[in-house]
Amino acid sequence: MTAITISEQDYREFSRFLESQCGIVLGDSKQYLVRSRLSPLMTRFAAESLSVLLRMAIKGYNRELKIAVIDAMTTNETLWFRDNYPYTVLSEQLLPALAEKRRPLKIWSAASSSGQEPYSIAMTILETQAKRPGLLTFGTQITATDISMSMLENCKHAVYDRLSLGRGLSDERKRRFFEDVGDGKMRVMDNVRRMVNFRHLNLLESYGLLGRFDVIFCRNVLIYFSPELKAQILNQMAACLNPGGYLILGASESLTGLTDKFEMVRCNPGIIYRLR
Fold first, then answer.
1. If I label 200, which of 67, 132, 144, 254 is the partner at 20 to 30 A Cα–Cα?
2. What is the pTM of this model?
């Protein structure tokens, strides 16, 4: 049992380390999360206890360990077409309005996790084009970023098991956008994969190299950050948007008290934000 316990002091020090490295705020009583995510790394890095593993990561002598720890703590699987309304709003309101700008549209998925969000965006665009031929003649570019290197590799391979495929995907979309690769797994088809460019990014660092976007999806990400870091991230995202660009947050997230750079747009259902 000693190997999977963490002292209160080690937990507090690791919490500070994690926040400084990637902004995630663990808060109190999340030892169970640290145990479940990091215990599998003990054998790989020859740590006799979890506390030893945490101290090794904090000291930072082993870069591979540091990356593996941050990877494990930031990996979150998500759903296809999560909450539905953002994709309906994108298809029915944003894409037709933005197409009038007569240039390539740029969309950023700011925490791509296991890839469901950016690929759902790509499928939405293809479905919209099928319904309204000639609408997006100048093309669309989707940039998807994440802090986890291992997740980005998985996203690029775009292979999903039965469990992942069952979370939010209709049978029709599976037939249209996936190919069977055996063992109960399916791969996103090439025409969808080609639409998404995956890049490594820590949201606490500069976004300067990403360029500017018309729409940013930053859904269910801010909940992990302190109010100060939320404000910092939102203001940086505002600087990345083209005039009149849109920000789409998670259903339970709000900008209240964090930034004044956006105005709320009620979409019925759902709320999105437009750059002032």
1. 254
2. 0.89
